[in-house]
What does this fold into?
Amino acid sequence: MTRRANKTRSLRHSVSILIIIFFLLSSASACAQLKYAVIPENPRPGDPITIGANSGVTEVLLFVNDKQVGKAPFFYIPGERDLPGFIAAVITVPSTIDSGNVVIKLNNANGQTAAEIPIELTPREFLSEVIHLDPVNTGIRTDPSPERTQQANHLWQILITTGDQIYHTGPFLPPTTATRRTSFFGSRRIFQYSTGGRDTSIHAGVDFGVPTGTRVDACGAGKVVLARTRIVTGNSVVLEHGPGIYSLYYHLDRLNVSEGDMVQTGDLLGYSGSTGLSTGPHLHWEVRVNAENTDPDAFVERQIIDKDLLIRKMYNR
It folds into this structure.
């Protein structure tokens, strides 16, 4: 009888321990709640949005009226000083969206939504412009060209590639000290062809009206992933700054870098010109986030990854 009693007490003790362990694990899981921050809270069309999270999610999706219009992966941001590490993602509100029910969804590795964040867009108006093209520029846009198609596909493959290296997290610097602009981000364009036809497009970047030979600098630290001549954009440079984040420099007269080079903010990339489809000397500067056209000025006005602000918002510091 004594042995049986001891066995019964031992079994009950083991069960009690298991219950306690289960309770502790459940409590720990409940405490490890998803914390996140969104900057800015009320973006404009064309603005980048930076999302920070403590853990547990792998991608961010952007929906407008229940239709997915953007997607970006989270990547790890190491801690520094007294700041903890966290994960972050950058996604852009397409410049073509001016209203609607806009929602950010944070998904885990299983594709399940861990959080839905409704956001309200700040209204924005874009300029309109008519660009008259001579026969040469008309041909660049309209004549069939397998080489032009191949170049476009090559660039697109670069822009949709999401690496795992972070080269730059601070604000960008303008690529030139010039302030005169001849075209703005998001401008609604009408191309008037010399043949009498016309076509429309949206300007993906900013044009600086500078003379040929003006110095063009890297807006931030990064890797040169393209440095070559293209039919439409002329002598061109593309820098990778972080996962899915690229800056582009078009119509240069001369290049000063090669593909594979590493550059720092302010390093010389080349000199402005009027190569490719161009109506005069200028620098076209563009920023893409996961292939989406993004307002370059937004990256000048604030840091790409503002660690202090994201952590303060996540943890209510």
Q: What stands out?
A: The chain is about 20% helix and 35% strand. Residues 1-30 form one domain. The radius of gyration is 25 Å.
